[in-house]
Amino acid sequence: MMRITAEAVSVEIGGKPLLDGVDLEVRPGELTGLIGPNGAGKTTLLRVLGALRPPGSGRVLYDGKTIARRERPALARRLAYLAQGGEAHWPLRVERLVALGRLPHQGPLGRASAEDQSAVERALQRSGVEHLRARTLATLSGGERMQVLLARALAVEAEALLADEPVAALDPHHQLRVMDLLRAEARAGKAVVVVLHDLSLAARFCDQLALLHRGRLLAQGRPESVLGDRELASAYGVRVLRGMERGEPFLLPWERLEAGERP
Ligand SMILES: Nc1ncnc2c1ncn2[C@@H]1O[C@H](COP(=O)(O)OP(=O)(O)OP(=O)(O)O)[C@@H](O)[C@H]1O
C-alpha cells in the first residue's frame, strides 16, 4: 500500500511556471483522475509524482517519506509509470517489451524468474494483448500499442500505477475495459492515478479528481464537486450537457464559451 503526497509542488522552466503550489494526496485503494486542458501541467505533475522529475520547490512524499537518490531503484519496484502514447518503432517483440516491466525486480544479471514469467503472462492477459505477443511493436496500431504499454506497466505489479492518457487512442469498448481495469487495480489496494480528457469517464470511474488549470489546482475532491458548470467553464471554456444513467453521471461537452463568458 502506498500513499503519495505532493506538498506545495512548483515547477518552473525558463521563468514560466508549469506547476504552481500543487497539494495533492493520492491514496491507496482509490482511482485519482488528473484532468485539465491541454498544457495545464497534468503530465508534469504525473512525472513529479512518479519521481521522474524533481519539483523546483515543494516535495513529494511516499508513505510520508521523501525518496533519496539511492532509494530510486527500490521505488521503481513500487511504482509503475505509463507514459503518454508516443511513437514506438522499435523492432521489439511485444512479450519482450512487457517483460521489461520486470527489470526493477531482477538482479544485476537480469535473469527472469518463474515469478517474473507469470507476472508477464498475467499482464498480457489482463490487458487483453496475448494475441499480439509475438508481434513487433512497430507493426501495432496506436490503440494496440497503448494496451501493450499498459501491460508493461501492469507487469511491474507495483503498489502504485501512474497512467498518462491510457485511453486516448482507444475505441469506446477498450476505453471502458481499461477504466474497469484501473478501477479494479485501485480496489485491490493500489494507488492509481490516471490522466484523462474524457469527462464522463472521469465522472464515472474516479474516486477523486484533481482539475489543473495553468499549473494550479482549480478544484479537487469528489467528481461531483469538481465537475461543476463553473469549474468546467473556467478551466476548459465549455458548457456541458449532463445526465444520469442508473445512478451514474455522464457529461457531454456541448459548446465553446467565448472569452467573455468564462467565469
Ligand atoms: N521543457 C519544456 N520547456 C518549455 N515548456 C515546457 C516544457 N515541458 C513542458 N512545457 C510546457 O508546460 C506546460 C504543461 O505541459 P504538460 O505536458 O504538463 O501539460 P498537460 O496538461 O499534460 O497537456 P496535454 O493535455 O496537452 O498533454 C505546457 O504548456 C508545455 O508546453
UniProtKB/TrEMBL annotation:
Keyword Nucleotide-binding attached: yes
Any Pfam family matching the protein: ABC_tran
GO molecular function, one term: ATP binding
Gene3D superfamilies for this protein: P-loop containing nucleotide triphosphate hydrolases (3.40.50.300)
Keyword annotations from UniProtKB, A to Z: ATP-binding, Nucleotide-binding, Translocase, Transport
Domain ABC transporter: 4-239
SUPFAM superfamilies from the UniProt entry: P-loop containing nucleoside triphosphate hydrolases
Superkingdom assignment: Bacteria
Described purpose of this protein according to its UniProt entry: Part of the ABC transporter complex HmuTUV involved in hemin import. Responsible for energy coupling to the transport system.
PANTHER family assigned: HEMIN IMPORT ATP-BINDING PROTEIN HMUV
Name of the protein in question: ABC transporter ATP-binding protein
Taxonomic placement: Bacteria, Pseudomonadati, Pseudomonadota, Alphaproteobacteria, Rhodospirillales
